[in-house]
Structure formats: C-alpha cells, structure tokens
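Translate sequence into structure tokens.
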Amino acid sequence: MKPLIAILAYLLSVCIHLSAQTEPAAGTWKTWFIDSAGDIAVPAPAGYRKEISEVLSHQKNIESSALHQIQYWNAGAPNYRWIPMVNKLWMSTPTSNGILMQMLVHVAIYDATIVAWDAKYKYNKPRPYEADRSIKQYLPNPSSPSYPCEYSVAAGVVSTIISHFYPEMADSLKGLSNQLMESRIMAGVAYPSDTKAGFELGRMVAQKAIAKTADFTPKTPWQGTVPDKPGLWKGQPMLPDAGQCKTVVLDSASHFRPGPPPDFATEMEELRNFKPTFRSVGNAFHFAYQTEDILSKKIFEYNIHLNPPRAARMYALEAIGMYDGFISCWDAKYTYWGIRPEQYDTTFTPVLFASPPFPGYPSGHAMLGAVNCELYSYFFPMDSAFFEKKAKDGAESRFHGGIHFRSDNEVALDMGKKVGALIVTKAKEDGADHTLNHPIFIRESSQKGRK
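Result follows.
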C-alpha cells in the first residue's frame, strides 16, 4: 500500500508542477516561416553559476530610472511594446513593403517563440533569482525556464525586420534592444547569456522569414493607369499594386474576390436622405481615427500576457488576418475602381469631409473589422457578441461618414468573414488547441450556445 501511495504522491506533485509551467508543450506547435522548432539549432547553455556575479553586478546601485525600464519593458507580452512603432511606421508611409513588414514582425516573433520554448524545456535552466537568493527579483515569477530570454527573442526579430525595411532605424533599434536586454538582467529574471541567445535566435528566425517572403511584394513600380470612364473612381491612387502581393493563407489576393459593384443610384439616394445624428457622427469619427488595440486589451483582461507563446500566436494570427485581408480588399478595389459617393454626386458633402485616396468598393474598414471579429471570437469565444458589434459598428461608420455606399460595407463584411474563417481553420491545425493549460480556453464548454 505504501509504494502505491508514494507513486500517487509523486504523480500529484508532477501534475502540480506541470500546471504551474507556461505552455511546456508549445515547442511542438506548428510554425509559419520556418519548418519547425527544430529548424533552428539553439546551443546548450553554459553553466550559469559563473554568471551569478554578472547579474549581481547589474543589480548594484539600481536607480529609479532603471526600475522604470524594468517595468516598462516587462509590460504585456514580448510583442507589446513594439506594436506602436510597427503600426506607426507603415501607416505614416503606406507601402506594400510596410504591410509585409508589419505581418512579418508578429509572425516571426511567434515562430521564434516556439523555438525558444522548445529550448527552454529542453535545457530547463533556472531563473537567476531561483539559482541564488542574493539576486533580487524585481518582477513577478515568469513560469518558464530562463534560457533563452523570450523578450530578447522579440527584440531580435523586431530589430532585424524593421532594419531590413527601414535601414535608417538600425542604430535606434539596437539601442532599444540593448535597453530591453539590460532590463531583464537587472530584474533578476535572465542571465546575460539568456538575452544574447534570445536576441540571436530572434535574428536568425527573422532572416529566414525575410528570405521566405522575398517575392511577396511587387519589385517594380505600378505601371497601370487610372481608368477614364464615367462611374468609376478617379484620383491619385494609394497602393494600387497591393493586390499583386502574395498572400499567406489565402490561395491568392483574388481568393474571395466579390462580383462587380451594383449601380449605386439607389444607395446614393439613401445617403442623400440620411439625417446625421450626434451618435452617427460620433461613430463616423470614432472609427475614422480610432487607435484602440483591442487584441492587447483582451490579452491583458484574460492574463494571456503572462503566456508568451499563446500571446505571440494571437498577435501572429491577427497580423496574418490584417495582411491577407488588406491584400484581398485592395485586389477588389483596383479590379473594379468602385466610385465613392462624393464623386458619384458632386453636390454631396460627406460628414468626414473627404474620402481616402483609393476606390470605395469594398470597404477596408468593414473588411478588416470582419476579419478581426472572426479571429477574436476564436481566441475569446465568450466575447464574440462584443466583437460582432464592433465589426458592424465599424462598417456602419463608413456609411455614417458619407464615404461609402452600403453595398461597399456589406460586401466587405462578407469577404472579411470568409478570410477570417479560413485563417481560423488553418490555426486549428497548429496543435495549440490540443495543449491548452489555461482554464479560460476550454472551448468545449465556452463555445456551447454560440451559433
């Protein structure tokens, strides 16, 4: 009887230990731009005892500014602090390469994180504060081994990819990356060798992702012309070649291309007769200028920022959705050159004053809102009604703003739903749903009742 009790006690202790670990099986998840976690060789870490003195040296005479950097870089998942920079870069100077850059950053962070997690649980290197009690712990316990550093992985990816597309930023990115890596050592959660190995891992995965997508964007300037026909959009087109980019999940940009737009006569009459209200005007301006990062907000609400592999997966799938959704939407826009309301009726003045510099059919806002709705509902099924309302409000805001016909939005919502659903189908093949260790993601119970 006693041996049986001993065995049961041992198994219980193992289960408790595993439940406290962060995604120990994440190293088996499928990757996107590398074949698997085994595609990158992460060398075994050297003995960490000799590094204890280095960590203590970094912690000596820590000032308030250093504590601020520790807290700043630790906020959110490893992607989090880089998101504003990535978004601002491509939005300030929209190019096909900028769209590709945004997608590559998050997908490469995911791929590199999967490699890192495979190495973490292969080598099981303890965190510095666990190895020596004289090392102070300035952050909550990361429930994963120390080597390689996951935040340094993200820094290696970001600095490599952004520097590739924006070489003038290389020095600034190097400085930010060094600052981040220093913060992890000062916090007592990583050794210098952990940060170095993490950064190098991120750099290698980023280089593979860049090479894998080298032919994704057109290499020559757009040679087309704006069609000079009545009833079509006219102007200086923005990103007319985006629809020629290669996609990640969709077979091509035209995978879900809709049929041609209708005669807008009836819809123009609807717009003329629409009486703006305080609420409709507010909705129009809100979605025209909103910068809300809904995914990061939900990741914080559900404490997924404490789970780097799962957070990285969410950011990667969102980035693929934005990329494939944008490319397919722009394919349709420059296939049909759908006219916008103020060009259709030159006496009409939109609430938003002026239309964007590209055709109206289908709506980009509605399209991408529907893509996100599908993805976010997959991530957080209990909040699906909230995401559906966001998508519908975003689509309606373009009508409220007077810059889209109703069919622009309705067609785009349908396209976005199809794009998002296809990406979710692909995501379900990566193995992550089979290794869930966060109770909020038990889909069998949370999905019941969702139609």
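Note: The first helix runs from residue 2 to 20.
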